[in-house]
């Protein structure tokens, strides 16, 4: 006969055998097992009467009193197999409760599904293999880009984002730039600086951030982001990584930068984004000397930049189409722009023209390569409460709001200190009020 016992019961058995063999007393056994002497007496009596089986818990192996009936369990599993196959335990529990009237705890449903191979716990699933990918052969063939949001200045300045451009073939840091947030305009500025220095690479390799890819399912297949439009105009491909492991080179570089770059900036006494961006070329040179490798093929695949400065200015903009009204006006960002009333502009009524917003905040209106002169009819100078703010300008708007709050707080402090009398003046007023009735009586 097989008797199943716990570790606690096995320890009791060894002590009670010593008691029965008179090697220790019941008082000593009570101290060892942290029980009362009366309980030791009862256990010894049960051990002498039933043997080892008398020390095992009587309910071991018996069904629980609160278990569900087998018929209910079978019916729930049948429903899951027929109607809810592929559902997770949490969702299956919700549907069993709302649609089929079975109010079973979610952990019970999870246990039933796991035991009947209707659900595989995450810890037991086969790990997806991430096979290694060889680096590209030539410099400029594939440039990995990413933004790393971190406390780069260790409290000396606000948290910010570092845009990283690294070559896949050599591991060279080609461009670094600090900015307040990972926005389209910041990527415009960084990408333009990159291609003006090195030329146009064959492709950029990025994650699925909304700057690079339209993530809304309804427009994913037909739309393109502003950054994607810019790269298309420059004949640069944009490739999306399916996982962080796929762009491991830039991810590992971010981890290294969050250690080395932070410490170097501390030693250099850098306390702001402007100071850091001015110093970063020196850091890039030192970093590449230590970590960069030679490409398997010495050919440089960066292409020469043939676009002029004016063309680049117009390419690196936020562009949106706007329809010209009969009164020769268009609306953008709660502003009405009145086009110059010329014979050429009259033909644009009812047509869509391009509204260009530059990274520095200036705007332009263009149609088929021709800049159109305009004037602003009205403009909201202050941001109203509950106004919808474009994500591309959110960082600047929040900074403006914070500055307004700080300035208002300073004005309130100055106002309170100006109108608050000092303590001596307050005491003199109180004494004067006390003397007034006495003076009146004497007079």
From TrEMBL:
Could you tell me where the Basic residues compositional bias lies? 413-422
Among InterPro entries, the record links this protein to:
Homeodomain-like_sf, Integrase_cat-core, ISNCY_transpos, RNaseH-like_sf, RNaseH_sf
Q: Which residues form the Integrase catalytic domain?
A: 128-310
A Gene Ontology biological process in which this protein takes part is: DNA integration
Supply the PROSITE patterns for this chain: INTEGRASE
Chain segments carrying region Disordered: 405-427
Query: What is the protein's name according to its record?
Result: Integrase catalytic domain-containing protein
